[in-house]
Amino acid sequence: MKLDATDLRYVTSDEFRVLTAVEMGSKNHEVVPTALIAQISGLRNGGTNKLIGSLAKRNLVSKVQNSKYDGYRLTYGGYDYLAMRAMSKRDSMHSVGNQIGVGKESDIYIVADAKGKEMVLKLHRLGRISFRAIKDKRDYLGKRKSASWMYMSRLAAQKEWAFMKVLHEHGFPVPQPIDQARHCILMEFIDAYPLRQISEVPSPGKLYSTLMDLIVRFALAGLIHGDYNEFNILIRRNSGEPIVIDFPQMVSTSHENAEWYFNRDVECIRTFFKRRFQYESSLYPRFRKIMAEGHSEGGNFKLDVIVAASGFGRKDMKILEQVSSTKILFLKYLILAPLVHGDY
């Protein structure tokens, strides 16, 4: 869904209280009963039904009727408002501008602080397109059903925030993280183009070497990007230097499939440079050699350990990996199904 912040300033504190109550009720209810919303919100003078109606008109909650009771679900619009209000109260974000990017599982907007400084707001939206069908096949979160995609979007944002923060603190070419709330991340605005939009560069060989060196640098610090391609690499307009973005799929070099992820990152760059710039090099990093060299140097500098210690634990990582692996299986099914059934 598209972010519409027009009504954000007109939502009252009591309405936000009710909206928060719906969010809290969603932790244990697929459809949150109206009586429970009233109980959680704790409004002394009542009027919960009227406030819920106002929120529903703005599409911040959605009414659901079933055989047992009537209730409400939080929408992504409501989740957006809760996140933006949290950032606004911390004075990290003041206004919302145009949408500048859209992906399978995120939306990107230009926003600004109170002084007019431009920033980038990324909203994670896991499961909003074709992968919504996966939810019917397998639920990783027990009683979390309707809220599961929002919860996993929140986990994805927390993971990206944790990795971006530690990478930026250790001098890696990534955006400066500014704030994070629920499924949203606020980061610095960088005047750059996505690599996929660039048709020619002064020296393809130099850029190729720089990008491969970054893969090695990540690995020596204990990390693998996992989606290192022309969509997630920005090129600064003034200097031509690369900036790496998008970290929800980042994994440790100790991951059981680490070599596969590493090789895929390497191959994505090789394939792109061959196709776009007609540049092909026989030189590229090998995972086992890099790991052997890292161990021989005796380095104990592991960012994956620092990230795990920062609060984004193994359990949260496992949930996101399960979802990611299910998506891969789902995509393989979409590709192979026509062949199995003879539809060419």
TrEMBL record:
SUPFAM superfamilies: Protein kinase-like (PK-like) (SSF56112), Winged helix' DNA-binding domain (SSF46785). Keywords: ATP-binding, Kinase, Magnesium, Metal-binding, Nucleotide-binding, Serine/threonine-protein kinase, Transferase. One of its GO terms (molecular function) is protein serine/threonine kinase activity. Its EC number is 2.7.11.1. Its cofactor is Mg(2+). GO terms for biological process: maturation of SSU-rRNA. Gene3D superfamilies: Phosphorylase Kinase, domain 1, Transferase(Phosphotransferase) domain 1, Winged helix-like DNA-binding domain superfamily/Winged helix DNA-binding domain. It comes from the Eukaryota. One of its GO terms (cellular component) is preribosome, small subunit precursor. CDD domains: RIO2_C. Residues 65-293 form the RIO kinase domain. It holds the Pfam family RIO1. It catalyses: L-seryl-[protein] + ATP = O-phospho-L-seryl-[protein] + ADP + H(+); L-threonyl-[protein] + ATP = O-phospho-L-threonyl-[protein] + ADP + H(+). InterPro entries: Kinase-like_dom_sf, Rio2, RIO2_wHTH_N, RIO_dom, RIO_kinase, WH-like_DNA-bd_sf, WH_DNA-bd_sf. Belongs to the protein kinase superfamily. RIO-type Ser/Thr kinase family. This is Serine/threonine-protein kinase RIO2. It comes from Collybia nuda.
